[in-house]
Here is the input.
Amino acid sequence: MISFLKILQPAVSNMKCSFKYFTILFFVFGTMCTSAQEFKKTATAGFVFLEVPSSSRAASLGESGLALADENSSAVFNNPASLGFSEYQHSFSASYAQWLADIKNYASSYAVKTDIGTFGIGLVLFDYGSMPRTVIAQDKQVFDVVGTFDAKSMAVGATYSKMLTNQFSFGTTLKFVQERIDIYSASNIVLDAGVLYYTGLGSLRMAAALQNFGANSKFINDEFKMPAVFKLGLAGELLGDASSEQRLTVTAEARHPNDGNEKISIGAEYSWNNSIALRGGYKFFYDEESYSIGIGINPQLPMPVIVDIAYVNYGRFDNILRMTIQVGMN
Here is the structure.
């Protein structure tokens, strides 16, 4: 009995250490988010393009994948902590969506594992297209069209993530964000930070993240706040595990944004033979968004390649179809 306890002691100590890390950082993130939100919340933030999911898998799960541990480089957009559990030494993703009002949305990411942690970079671009430029006609109360102008939004970030134990990882992303309309622009530096914890209760994972945390920005003369959001997530397998022929993963996520009411989303992913994955999600307390569905296909090529497709319902607006290609390499 004494020998058994000696064997068990390191595992228990490791679990306590991981839980301590998670608890401390959970309260740090929560305090930061709360202190950043002492103002009227409705429609008060700018750079709202940062709230749009940048991967098809995340979108098809109803944006409830905060506690997923197998996102590889796409984790830089969702929870940088999960990058520490990446299964590939090198991973890459590219995503495209024709978003609302014919807005084009591009995203790409790359991550590499090293002895001191995992490093990643991510790029998000929104192209709003060309619009007519107008001026007030001389001595008239009408406008003349005198050409066109365009508008774009962009975010580029650098990520670092590390496993502190085999159950716990943390990650941070520093992002430069910019929005431009014609000759006018606004830019800022914002921070993402997250933690991911394997609880030891089966495959249950817990995650917490603070995203888009930064100082106020200004567009021409108007000051606005960043779209900061504090997230809590859960994920686990109801069937199988990462190495099983069949696997059913369920996810849940709660959001506390600084520019709106709290939101909840849930999702599920059924994977068969590591070749095909069927996904679905649902969002609660959103104005227009509700259900989402998706599929992931792994054609079993010599180099791991996964094609993800998501279909997201936006209520009275156009529904969104998003495609992502992921590549891994050891």
The chain has one domain: 2-233. The chain has a mean pLDDT of 87.
